[in-house]
Amino acid sequence: DAKTTQPTSMDCAEGRAANLPCNHSTISGNEYVYWYRQIHSQGPQYIIHGLKNNETNEMASLIITEDRKSSTLILPHATLRDTAVYYCIVRVVTSGTYKYIFGTGTRLKVLA
Amino acid sequence: SQTIHQWPATLVQPVGSPLSLECTVEGTSNPNLYWYRQAAGRGLQLLFYSVGIGQISSEVPQNLSASRPQDRQFILSSKKLLLSDSGFYLCAWNHNNSPLHFGNGTRLTVT
User: Which residues pair with B107 in a beta bridge?
Assistant: First the structure.
């Protein structure tokens, strides 16, 4: 079972920041939060990940709350090409192996 | 650089027929390999993962099986397909502590 919950869908105006929330209230201390996105009929694309600290890369920023029970992915200036399904994932360690359990994600629609 | 290949891209098979989907990774060695399935309008479901040759872990009971005959080859199979096996099948790889990298998937329609 997925360890994350996300809103089913969101809209964002082109050029504005898109803030995608995720709840992971049962996360354990050594479990990372990962974000992926999937454009229709393609494989998911890695965006960013983090453990405790906020992270930023060329695609997005990840804000993790101090208690680590939730996080927010920020796309600073959304474009039409950012329309996709965004998955928030907790990476679980099982028998020494990392497993990535996907939920149903948030369908982000960027509006012109 | 590392690349992951899946084939075929699309497949239409009759109920009761066998299935073989192949995934290969290039440019790396000893990867962790994963098979996911995505039903229409749904999220990704982890089916199998492998940490080495001949080592397969199954996540859910189903009509499918997986094998890893070589270090960088991961095969998803079925002896007799069911209608419910239709979906988008994705292969992925990583090394521990690195993100998953996905292939472009195989869209399977069982008729």
Answer: B10, B88
Q: Do B46 and A99 touch (CB under 8 A)?
A: yes
Between B41 and B101, residue with greater pLDDT: B101
Q: What is the DSSP string of chain B?
A: --EEEEE-SEEEE-TT--EEEEEEEES-SS-EEEEEEE-TTS-EEEEEEEEETTEEEESS--S-EEEEEETTEEEEEESS--GGG-EEEEEEEE-TTS--EE---EEEEE-
| A59-89 residue pLDDT tens | 999 999 999 999 999 999 999 999 999 999 9
Looking at chain A, the whole-number percentage of residues with pLDDT higher than 70 is 98
Three-class SS state of A96: coil
pLDDT digits (tens, 9 = 90+) for B19-33: 999 999 999 999 999
**Of the candidates A95, A97, A102, which has its C-beta nearest B44's C-beta?**
A102
How many residues are listed for chain B in this entry? Answer: 111
Closest to A47 in 3D by CA, of A38, A59, A56, A39: A59
Nearest CA in chain B to A44: B102
Nearest to A46 among B43, B49, B100 (CB): B100
Question: Does A102 contact B43 at a Cβ distance shorter than 8 Å?
Answer: yes
